[in-house]
Design goal:
It is built from no helices and five strands. By secondary structure, the chain is mainly β. The chain has one domain: OB fold (Dihydrolipoamide Acetyltransferase, E2P), CATH 2.40.50. The protein starts with a strand and ends in a 5-residue tail after the last strand.
Length: 73
């Protein structure tokens, strides 16, 4: 399943010299609830920032990936 979302916060951290990021986001259909996902830094688009519009991919109710949303025309 894929849902549109907005990045609300990013918190990087290291585990054994590997960079991970806790991503806080709100889904477009539920903007009052902040969700979080922990992903490796290389699983996120380069230069992602708070306020960016993204597509979140869910598998079995777990975030499997985040990618940039296509720009609106």
């Amino acid at each position: 399943m894929e849902t549109g979302a907005t990045i609300e916060g990013l918190r990087p951290y290291l585990i054994h010299d590997e960079r991970y990021i806790v991503v806080y986001f709100t889904k477009h259909d539920d903007p009052e609830t902040i969700h979080q996902a922990q992903l490796s830094a290389d699983a996120l688009p380069d230069g992602i920032r708070v306020g960016d519009e993204v597509i979140v991919t869910w598998v079995l109710n777990i975030v499997a990936g985040i990618r940039r949303a296509a720009p609106a025309d």
